[in-house]
Design brief:
By secondary structure, the chain is an alpha/beta fold. It is built from six helices and ten strands. The chain has one domain: Rossmann fold (3-Layer(aba) Sandwich). The strands form two sheets. The chain has an eight-stranded mixed beta sheet, sandwiched between helices. A two-stranded antiparallel sheet has the order 1-2. Strand 7, helix 5 and strand 8 form a beta-alpha-beta unit. The longest helix is centred in the first third of the chain and has 14 residues. The protein starts with a helix and ends with a strand. The structure holds guanosine-5'-monophosphate (5GP). The site of guanosine-5'-monophosphate has 20 residues, from strand 2, strand 7 and helix 5.
Length: about 190
């Protein structure tokens, strides 16, 4: 998505060769019009699939997932991050390491909002090693729901997350693919 790439070049900053700061677009501030365009693009990419729900992980995935759900006319479910893992029989839970925070968090989705009748489109902000995505994919599998695929705003393709998920036979669509951050420069694929 050219508009997104232009905005990344203008507004992102490079923290180190692995991490891009995207606070101005995704992780702290949100541009509603740009986010709406992203939602339209994901809806277009998955137009042939009968999606019943959009799903994401709180919190930075929520705006773009909402924009996508609005265009598709379906509900949005966001996995919640929990501080304690008191076994909850009414929820699917997975433990995921956090790429940026260096801690482990537990994500959960209530059984009430995900079932074998659903075909879900999983939207997220950034994919790096894919741990967060794998956690939610496990939850989707355990619920019996069908995973239509993933829609990722920024794929850092020099890290292995999206590749290993595609190798599992899961469709992954990314709006911007970053091949490298070496030398303090953003290089798109
Ligand atoms: P993963 O689980 O794929 O390794 O990391 C995914 C999550 O970590 C994303 O949802 C995002 O919140 C955070 N993350 C990973 N890499 C970056 C990065 O380069 N910049 C920012 N801002 N967040 C990142």
């Amino acid at each position: 998505m050219e508009l997104l790439k232009e905005r990344i070049l203008r507004e992102a900053s490079i923290l180190n060769q692995d991490v891009l700061k995207l606070d101005a677009l995704l992780n702290h501030q949100v541009d509603p019009l740009l986010t709406q365009e992203m939602g339209k693009e994901f809806a277009r990419l998955y137009a042939e699939t009968p999606i019943t729900k959009v799903i994401t992980v709180e919190s930075s995935g929520i705006p773009v997932a909402y924009a996508t759900a609005l265009v598709l006319g379906v509900p949005l479910v966001f996995a919640r991050r929990k501080k304690t893992l008191i076994a909850d029989p009414d929820a699917y839970c997975e433990r995921v390491p956090s790429f940026t925070k260096g801690i482990v968090t537990d994500i959960m989705v209530s059984r009430q909002f995900l079932s074998a009748d659903d075909t879900v489109l999983f939207i997220d902000d950034i994919i790096a090693n894919g741990d967060a995505a794998r956690g939610l994919i496990k939850i989707i599998e355990r619920s019996g729901a069908t995973l239509a695929g993933l829609g990722i705003v920024v794929e850092k393709s020099f890290q292995s997350g999206a590749r290993t998920i595609r190798e599992q036979g899961i469709r992954v669509e990314s709006l911007a693919k970053i091949a490298s951050l070496d030398g303090g420069k953003i290089r798109f694929e």
